[in-house]
């Protein structure tokens, strides 16, 4: 236990035969339950887990997916198992099966949730000066882009390093979330933040040490992941606007957002049409170009004002 709370650690694993023993054996003694979800590994991960069960006994719970569903789906399976253990006074941790999450950082992540100050704590590798040196450059830059998009989509403007999966959530908050509608693959942590904001849960970043070159094999392909998650976040933003600011409690920022996209979008199309006419027909009236520019500028300003109102609405959720 940790400060009178149960601690359940969810470990999603896929083809982690080289590192899964290190992860399970390295967990601190105060961890009450370890839930490893094998997402249809093709290597000897399952055999290693069966051997670990003989060592750790009832503390270790092992679940196997019959087919590969993705890291997000594996986490959801682990979350549901953790809720089956306890729905109160249970801090549910997620640690990857590739040993890239330092167990020594776990007390720092648990503390704010244990004290009831926040509902969800997540690691942030970018705060320390080590991040730029240790994290591969392409992944660092990709993370930075997705973190910015996640700030906009989720409403948690104070949160960075959106791609880290080292997190802690209070079981009371976890029980409220609609887990089965979350994205089942690498976009899961981003979608999780959107879901949390929809219910006004408090989220805090906690500095953690980036861990690389321990034998992990990344399955992330940035040229595929970044467009996929960007599209997910685009859809999540408008879903959150609808759910939070129309259905749950109407907010005037919807007027600014609607005006911005309608007027800004129409002015942009009109401007492109003017460019086409200029190329194909010849000189046009300056008034037309001015009209398009003023409309586009008004639309952008309206969208920025809606973003500012969203920031103000969520500034206390930390």
Describe it for me?
The protein is of the alpha/beta class. The chain is built from eleven helices and seven strands. Strands 3-2-1-4-6-5-7 form a seven-stranded mixed β-sheet, with helices on both faces. α2 links the parallel β2 and β3. The longest helix has 29 residues. The chain is elongated and about 80 Å long. It starts with 5 loop residues before the first strand and ends with a helix.
Largest sheet: 7 strands, mixed
Percent of residues in helices: 40-55%
Question: How much beta, percentage-wise?
Answer: 5-15%
Strand order in the sheet with the most strands? 3-2-1-4-6-5-7
Alpha carbon gyration radius: 23 Å
pLDDT averaged residue by residue: 91
Low-pLDDT runs of 5+ residues are none
Globular, elongated, flat, extended or rod-shaped: what is the shape?
elongated
- SSE order, as H and E? EHEHEHEHEHHEHHEHHH
**Topology, number of strands:** 7
SS field, number of helical segments:
11
Structural class: alpha/beta
Distance between the termini: 25 Å
Write a compact overview of the structure shown.
The chain has 318 residues and is of the alpha/beta class.
Which features characterize this protein?
alpha/beta; seven-stranded mixed beta sheet; elongated
Summarize the helices and strands and which ones pair or pack:
Elements: E1 6-13, H1 20-25, E2 33-38, H2 45-56, E3 60-64, H3 71-85, E4 90-94, H4 106-114, E5 120-124, H5 131-134, H6 137-154, E6 167-170, H7 171-174, H8 188-198, E7 203-207, H9 222-248, H10 253-280, H11 286-314
Parallel strand pairs: 1-2, 1-4, 2-3, 5-7
Antiparallel strand pairs: 4-6, 5-6
